[in-house]
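During the reporting period the student researcher (J.K.) took over the structure-prediction task from the postdoctoral fellow and processed the backlog of single-chain submissions. One of the processed entries is reproduced below for the supervisory committee.
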Amino acid sequence: MRFSRRHVSLPHLSILCSVVLIILTAEKAVSIRFPDRISESVKTASNQPLRTAVFALGSFWRSEAVFGCLDGVVRTTAGYAGGSKVNPDYRSWGDHAESVQIEYNPRLINFRQLLEVFWSSHDSRQVFGQGPDVGNQYRSIIFTNGTEESRLAAVSKEREQTASKSSIVTTQIQQLAMFYPAEPEHQKFELKRNPFLLQLMGNLPEEELEKSTLAAKLNGFAAEVCPPKIQRQINARIDEIIRRGWPILREL
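J.K. obtained the following structure tokens:
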């Protein structure tokens, strides 16, 4: 079919360009339109304050991903905690540990459930590191706010020690003094390694990406550390978006 430029009005030309774009991208079955800016509202119950938990369980890249895809988790932030150095950074963290701060809705998930994820997501018996990462900054710590969280942490550690039998659980329990967010390049690290997912979200600015609930979930999905059910749900949602040539992925 041939088109004469003089017979195509501007509105029709716009439609034609869109059709051509879809045809050109049909090989990957994806057609995405990018808005200038996406604003995302966090879905929490009205008048329900969020709570915060902080854990250290090895590299904060993976730690942030582990908690990000849990239902009830609203935001995650990679950072530093557990030390005395003021304003630590990635090249000078002092005696801090790489940590993750989790903001969560207590009506959907509680501290005890977060503890279960903490214990199941790393080796609490490993000394001076975690997996291939060696160093004191990768030590295992549960940070608490108040006596009830301290009690829950102690009970969970005792249970873990009983299950570990002769191996010593090295996890520390500390009252949280200060949490320092890490540099932007360390936030949502696994998600940033997947340009397709970033494009599917509309290429959010850095500040929005760091605070985004959707980004937290997709960060866990990209790292393949979500519970199997959630991993399958996200996969299905992305497949649906691609199949329909949907403009943007706003929520899961």
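The committee noted the following: The longest strand covers residues 73-81.
J.K. will present the remaining backlog at the next meeting.
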